[in-house]
Each structure stands twice: as C-alpha cells, then as structure tokens.
Design a protein that fits this description.
The chain has 2 helices and 46 strands. It has about 650 residues and is mostly beta strands. It has a 12-stranded antiparallel barrel with strand order 31-32-33-34-35-36-37-40-41-44-45-46. Strands 3-4-5-6 form a 4-stranded antiparallel beta sheet. The longest helix is centred in the middle third of the chain and has 31 residues.
C-alpha cells in the first residue's frame, strides 16, 4: 500500500491509506451544514508552556499514534498517544511530517533545508543523508518503519530515487536518462514503485528497477500491495498523457488496463494489502469523475457521489479492502461495502460521520442532565405532616420544557410519604417515575425510576426558627438516541445506554414571620449543598457500517444553592407560595466518552462534550395551595429557570400535587 504526503483540504484527501488526517479532524471538528454551527473538540492538548497552534499531520496505521507540530517558524514536534497524551520530540526549525509507521514507532519528514529524517524514541532524529544533491524528500515508509523511499536531486529536478535502510541510502537506479521519482513502498519494504523517464517502474533488491510497460504512452506507478506483487497507477493510452487509464500490474499478466466508467480517463490511487481491491477515479460518459472500486470479479464499479456534489475520487483503501476514503466535491467521504444508501452505494460524508460521533458526547450530556434534574428534585421532595398530624401522603407530577433545546420535554410522577417522629423530627421516603424526550436529537429517556429517603428537623411547630434536612436519592433510566440525526449522507445508528445516579443533599434554613405587601408571611431563607453522581454504562451500536463502542464513564457535580421562599395565606383556604433560588456549580468532574470505532481518525477516542455548563443558574417559582379539607390540599405551581448550559433554552416547569395528612 502506498504512503503519500497529506494534502490539507478539509479532510479532502482524508486518509491515504489511513496514515494521514487533517488537524481539523483531530483537533477541532466543526458541525457543518444546515445545523447551527457549534464547535466540538477532540482535544489532543498541548505541551507545557507552549500555547502556539497545534497542527496534527499524520496518524499511524493502527490509529493509536498522532504526530505533528506546534508553532510557526520555531516548531516543536510532538507525538500523541491515548495513554501518555502529548510528548515532545524536540524543537526543530520548520519541519514537515511526511509519514509514520504502522504502529507509530517511527516518524519521517523533511526539514526546511530540504533534507529528510527518521525519528524514533531511542535514536531521536536521524538524518537520512543525500546522494549528492541539494534536496531529499522522503515519500513512503514501510509498515515496520525500517525502509524509507523518496527522491533526491537538486531543487525542481529529481535525478535519483532512493531506498533507505539501516542508515544507508541506496540509489535504486533509473530507466533511461530522464528524471526519476519513488512514490511508495510495499508494506514489507522490499518493493519500491514510481516513475523513471516517464515509465512506471518496480524495484526490488534482486531484479533492480524493472520497466512495467505502458498502455501506449507515459506511465507512473503509485502504490503496491503489501508484498509488492501487485502494482497500480496510470498510463496514457497514446502519446504523453492523452486518455490515461488506470492499470493493475502483476508479473504473470503484465500491465492490465482497468478501463473507465464510460469516459476517457481513469487513475488507480491505492490498493489493499493482498492486491485484490483497487480504488481511484474514473470518468463517466458525461465527463464527470467518479470514485471507483475494482475487483477481478466485479470489474470497475462506481461508488457514487455525496448529495449536492457532481464528482468524486477514492484516495485510499483499508488493508482488508472493505473500507474506502476519498473526496466528493469539496467534502471527504468514507465507503463501506456492508452498508448501502439508496443511490449512493455506501458512500458517507466523512466529516459528518466523524461529527455524528462527536455529537454523541453532547447528547449523552443532555440525557445525563435530565436524570440529574429528576434526582435533585426528588432529593428536595418532602411530605411533612402538620403539627397535629402524624402521617403524610402525596402524589404529584412535574412537567418541564426546555434546557437542551426549546422542544425538549421531561415528565415525572412523584410519590411521597412522611412520618412525624416527635415534635421536631420527621422522616420519609419518596419515589419517582418519569421520561424525557430530546426531540431535536431524537433522544429519549424512558423507564426512569428513582427512590429517596429524607430526614428533617424543625425547631418550632409553626415552621419558624431553625430547620435542617438531609436526603439521598438513587435512580436509573434507559436511554437511546439516533447518531447521525439531521446530517446528510450519514447512516443513522441507534445507540442505547443505561444511566444510574445518586443525589445527596443537606440544607439549613431559618423561618420567620414578617409583614409583607401580601400580608402576614412565613419567610424562610435556605442554604443547601448537593452532590450528584451519574454513571453511564458502555454500549455498542448494532447493524451499522461503522459501529461505535463506548466505555462506561462517571460524572460528578457539586452545587451550592442559596434561596428564599415565602408562604402567605391569601384566603381562609388558600396559600400563595413564592420562591427564588440561585444554583452555583462548585465543582464539575465530568469524564468524556471514551471508546473506539472503525471511522478513520476516531479509531480510539476520548471525547469531551462541547456543552459548557452554566456556573450560576437562577430559578423562580410561583405556586398556590388550596385546602380541600382539614387533612387534604391540592396545589400547583410554575417555574422558570436558566438552562444548565450556556446557549441552551430557558427551562419552564409546571407541577401539581395532592397531599393528605392524618
């Protein structure tokens, strides 16, 4: 398989083959298209004391190692892994990374002075040397990193192609007296391919440089199978580069014309490990280019285009031949044989596919917020008997709209029971059933169940004086959402995950009677401290081309709440209840979603949600309670609050409760 320099262009040249990806994909993927713009980050971090721009330039074949540079003129190279994060390879003036070995051990590139290097952790930067010219450009590296190929000569004139191994740069010769360029090396490092004097060549140590022939004009080899037995590229069918066609070469059959899709030209860009699958671009009868996939059984078949584009090109194929990447218009695509979209032959938008995975972190964050709200509400729910009563029972409902977006809803049904232990102490239990729907994200939280226990102290029977309460609530819910919702050319995948959580709350208050414009009121300032912890079980998507597997994670947040509430009897049976509160987020220990997928650039990931939690959340509540009998009352209320995150929709709530004490 070939290894060519990455060409930055909004993931345009994506991964070729799986070795190169743009910094845009690895450092900051921005939601594009019809959705509101919202930056979401796959943050590789930075190096201590270095705040310059991070430019990720290459990714290893196994997807576990990223290499690149930080800074402009005075650059510092870095190597990043999931385990160790970003580590420095040392400051080097104006270096460009050209490739990385399959396991990420070796890195190749070029200096500004037009010389090339190989780096590894033991030997550091090793200059590849020259063959006498003023410029050396490394272009390809074998799977194990032991062999490097490229070209050397004077600026603008490639006079020699080289193969480097064990510190020795070897001139691999030429065909004729024209220029020579080595484009790639086989995975095992034994075969180099390229062009010399306008003719495609294959080189190995035994046979030297061999002319692969032509289809009638000039030719060039671009890539080779892992053992170098199958080579692909393009050749003109006549003259210099007139009507160039893709070719497949083997020693047994020679150069085979792969044809076109009805037009005049085609080119083979890459080949899988065993040489059975070839990808590239070919012209149709209408003159438009189409990405193609070729096998001996099917011949050349079009992979189609992404919606809204008119041309496409395949630039890389996976070792097993099942996955193809490339460009369609100015967008990157990924194609897999196991999934077919009507009319699109399995082609998906690579940017949007990566974005859909990163958006999952946002969706999980909103689902977690819904469960946290349910648990915190339940931790505040208390059914305290009156001064002359021993027991209390209540049944209530809560309906919310907003927060994640203006159409998101949450519904809870609450049950509570309390018992007076003596004149000052009471205790009880609470329960909740509920669900939530995030319509824009097609996410739902169902079978949400929670239980709580509480204990309370009140100095005086009329609720004046000092008071205190402590409670704990535990709950779980089943959640699901559609990844890829509202993104074009992306297969929608249904994800299912379970959430379990615990909320702890302690509060202190002081009640006092005061004359207010509404009349004689019980005014109660309160200070509360609450802690909520939520665990997300891992999950794996099913029946999709690029399934996402996510590990379990835990989120913990601590809040301080400062509030004041009033109760004013406005009629013989009616009481007006008002409350103002401010939630302050004291600490936020939220893990990202970590897992793996088959999507290039996200084979291993640890994604933080782009949701920026709001640190201060004001809330206002207005309620009314009406005594039905001496032992029962019916009440209701409305609530308005800021969203739990920056940029979210305001939260509005409506609640009702029936209470019976005896």
């Amino acid at each position: 398989m070939k290894s060519i320099p990455f060409i930055p262009s909004s993931l345009a040249k994506a991964l070729t083959p799986w070795h190169f990806i743009s910094a845009t994909a690895l450092v900051a993927l921005t939601v594009l298209g019809s959705q509101p713009a919202q930056a979401v980050m796959l943050d590789l971090g930075s190096l201590p004391g270095n705040t310059d721009t991070v430019n990720a330039q290459a990714i290893s074949g196994d997807g576990k190692v990223v290499v690149g540079q930080i800074g402009g003129t005075n650059r510092e190279l870095f190597r990043w892994t999931m385990d160790k994060g970003m580590t420095s390879l040392g400051p080097v003036d104006r270096v460009t990374v050209a490739g990385v070995s399959n396991d990420g051990t070796y890195v190749i590139g070029s200096y500004t002075n037009l010389l090339s290097f190989r780096w590894d952790a033991i030997n550091g930067f090793v200059d590849l040397g020259t063959l006498g010219g003023s410029e050396v450009v490394a272009r390809g590296i074998s799977d194990d990193g032991s062999v490097i190929v490229g070209s050397t000569g004077n600026v603008g004139s490639w006079s020699s192609a080289f193969r480097w191994e064990n510190g020795v740069m070897q001139d691999i010769g030429a065909i004729g007296s024209g220029g020579v360029i080595a484009n790639g090396v086989s995975g095992d490092g034994r075969v180099a391919v390229g062009a010399s004097s306008g003719l495609a060549f294959r080189w190995d140590n035994t046979n030297g440089m061999s002319d692969l022939g032509t289809l009638g004009g000039l030719s060039e080899a671009l890539a080779a199978s892992r053992d170098g037995s199958v080579i692909v590229g393009y050749s003109a069918t006549s003259g210099f580069f007139a009507n160039q066609h893709a070719f497949r070469w083997t020693e047994q059959s020679g150069m085979q014309d792969l044809g076109t899709l009805g037009g005049q030209t085609s080119v083979a860009n890459d080949i899988n490990a065993d040489g059975s699958v070839i990808v590239g671009k070919a012209q149709q009868a209408d003159g438009a280019d189409r990405a193609f996939l070729w096998t001996d059984a099917t011949g050349m078949t079009s992979l189609g285009v992404l919606s809204g584009t008119t041309s496409s090109e395949a630039t890389g194929v996976s070792d097993d031949g099942n996955t193809v990447v490339g460009t369609s218009g100015n967008r990157a695509f990924i194609w897999n044989e196991s999934f077919v979209l009507p009319g699109l032959a399995g082609m998906q938008d690579l940017n949007y596919l990566q974005t859909s995975i990163i958006r999952s972190a946002v969706t999980v964050s909103h689902l977690t917020a819904s469960q946290n709200r349910r648990l915190r509400d339940l931790a505040q729910e208390q059914c305290q008997p009156g001064a002359a009563q021993t027991y209390c029972l209540s049944l209530g409902s809560q309906n919310y709209r907003g927060d994640a977006d203006s159409s998101a809803t949450q519904k809870n049904l609450n049950l509570a029971a309390g018992m007076r232990l003596n004149e000052q102490y009471s205790a009880g239990v609470t329960g909740s059933l509920g669900r939530a729907d995030l319509n824009v994200q097609s996410a739902e939280q169902k079978k949400a169940f929670a239980l709580g226990v509480w204990g309370a102290f009140q100095q005086n029977a009329d609720d004046t004086g000092w008071g205190a309460a402590a409670s704990v609530a535990v709950g779980q819910s089943q959640n699901s959402f559609d990844r890829g919702m509202a993104l074009t050319d992306v297969q929608r995948a249904r994800a299912n995950l379970d959430l379990t959580g615990t909320a702890l709350r302690v509060a202190g208050n002081f009640g006092m009677r005061m004359n207010t414009p509404l009349g004689d009121s019980l005014i109660t300032p309160e200070v509360a401290l609450s802690h909520v912890s939520t665990h997300q079980d891992g999950f794996t998507e099913r029946s999709v081309a690029f399934p996402l597997t996510v590990k379990g994670s835990t989120e913990q947040r601590t809040y301080a709440t400062f509030g004041v509430r009033s109760a004013t009897q406005v009629s013989p049976k009616g009481t007006l209840n008002l409350a103002l509160a401010v939630d302050t987020l004291l600490s936020d220990n939220t893990q990202g979603i970590e897992g793996h997928s088959k999507v290039p650039g996200l084979s291993r990931f640890n994604l933080d949600s782009s949701v920026d939690q709001r640190r201060v959340i004001p809330t206002a509540t207005v309620g009314y309670s009406h005594a039905l009998t001496a032992n029962s009352a019916l009440g209701g209320g409305v609530q308005a609050a800021a969203s739990t995150h920056q940029g979210g929709a305001p939260l509005f709530g409506l609640g009702m409760q029936y209470r019976y004490s005896f």
